Amino acid sequence: MKLAAIVRSAALVSAIALIPATTAGLAQVDGRAGPEFAKLFAVYQRIKASYVEPVEDDKLIRGAIDGMLASLDPHSAYLDGGDLQRLETMIDGNYSGLGLSVVMDDGAVKVVSPFKGSPADKVGIKAGDYITHLDGKLIYGGELDDAVAKMRGPAGSTIRLTIFRAGREEPFDVTVTRGVIELEPVTHKLEAGNIGYISVNEFSRDVGADVLKSWNELKKQAAGRVNGLVLDLRQNPGGSLDEAVALSDLFLEKGQIVSQRGRAKGESLVYNAESVFRGDMAKGVPVIVLIDAGSASASEIVAGALQDQRRAVVMGERSFGKGSVQTLLPLGRTAALKLTTARYYTPSGHSVQEGGITPDIQVPQLSDPDLAKREKFRLRESDLRGHLVNEAALKDEELEKDRKDDPRFQMTADQLKEKGIEDFQLTYALDTLRRTTPSAMARRN
């Protein structure tokens, strides 16, 4: 397995930066750790001598490595073979599969978000769903990488998923036909009133340039008179840090976009505007950024930057809350360590970790018929076992309560459907832009 393609990709915010692992750079083992290493070796010897069946050395060593990383946080991991190959395909192109972002939650595979337009999205799989079986075989208690590998496969092949969903009395099966998941996920549309809509589904390569291209096409369709723009980052689990900076820079002419702070030398960095693109591509045009609980990592960097810089109104629901940076440390030619090395902060110094980005205007997705029941089981960073704790020591109740009852948001999903509204959050954002002048949006407090 080659690391060359991964090294070319710079940084991911799931967020992965890349630092060469040299002998001189490796941390020296603290002398006080000697007795602890003795315990580890003693356990190894006992297993080799007394376990009911012979155990290969590579299995025991891999188990020890995985155990060390599992004791840290949910995003640190050891990668080799197929794991590295999957990371490379996520960065460099496309792959055949279902189009799901998933995490392991207490032994269960839980959906963070389906990529918009993916095979999983088309069959109705939702954020917060638990996948319990694949083709009738129980996957609870297994390894996340094994489950992901089984969900991958040739385009056109099918797989049967057993889903547990909050609000449903019993699990149900859904058959999904795998497709080629294209990691060029920017789409756009000109809505009524010359309001532009750009959806970014994943921060893969060239997203910044793709958004700029979409904006130019929207201007042509609107004969140069775009009256507002909705930037949709919902269900976007993140990706390239470089592309998050590039996308933010499309709208900013000065100031900071994001900073990261780590313990090791070289891990504390500041990213500023005007470093990728010059000027504000949509200067004078009011912008609304849509986020939800599936908006994570790179999505939160963009939303936080435009919110703090007063360039956009952020609307929707509180984001996932992944405010950490993972560095990919190559271990020889066939393996690498994905290690959490820093936290990132919005321009105002706000740590996204746990708390996420709070919208300026909180708008529930009323068109989701299972909204009330699924909110009880909604997954965010603060729900993951071993997550990094926010340095601001946020109280649980501040994280758990997104909104109070609002008289504007009382319609049911059925009532909205009768009116032809399938996406309440988007409809609310578009209506807001239609009735708001650019000067009033620029003056928002």
Automatic annotation (TrEMBL):
<feature type="domain" description="PDZ">
    <location>
        <begin position="84"/>
        <end position="152"/>
    </location>
</feature>
<keyword id="KW-0645">Protease</keyword>
<dbReference type="InterPro" id="IPR004447">
    <property type="entry name" value="Peptidase_S41A"/>
</dbReference>
<dbReference type="InterPro" id="IPR041489">
    <property type="entry name" value="PDZ_6"/>
</dbReference>
<keyword id="KW-0732">Signal</keyword>
<dbReference type="Pfam" id="PF17820">
    <property type="entry name" value="PDZ_6"/>
</dbReference>
<keyword id="KW-0720">Serine protease</keyword>
<protein>
    <submittedName>
        <fullName>S41 family peptidase</fullName>
    </submittedName>
</protein>
<dbReference type="GO" id="GO:0030288">
    <property type="term" value="C:outer membrane-bounded periplasmic space"/>
</dbReference>
<dbReference type="InterPro" id="IPR055210">
    <property type="entry name" value="CtpA/B_N"/>
</dbReference>
<dbReference type="InterPro" id="IPR005151">
    <property type="entry name" value="Tail-specific_protease"/>
</dbReference>
<dbReference type="InterPro" id="IPR029045">
    <property type="entry name" value="ClpP/crotonase-like_dom_sf"/>
</dbReference>
<dbReference type="InterPro" id="IPR036034">
    <property type="entry name" value="PDZ_sf"/>
</dbReference>
<dbReference type="GO" id="GO:0004175">
    <property type="term" value="F:endopeptidase activity"/>
</dbReference>
<dbReference type="InterPro" id="IPR001478">
    <property type="entry name" value="PDZ"/>
</dbReference>
<dbReference type="GO" id="GO:0006508">
    <property type="term" value="P:proteolysis"/>
</dbReference>
<dbReference type="GO" id="GO:0008236">
    <property type="term" value="F:serine-type peptidase activity"/>
</dbReference>
<feature type="signal peptide">
    <location>
        <begin position="1"/>
        <end position="27"/>
    </location>
</feature>
<dbReference type="GO" id="GO:0007165">
    <property type="term" value="P:signal transduction"/>
</dbReference>
<dbReference type="Pfam" id="PF03572">
    <property type="entry name" value="Peptidase_S41"/>
</dbReference>
<dbReference type="Pfam" id="PF22694">
    <property type="entry name" value="CtpB_N-like"/>
</dbReference>
<keyword id="KW-0378">Hydrolase</keyword>
<comment type="similarity">
    <text>Belongs to the peptidase S41A family.</text>
</comment>
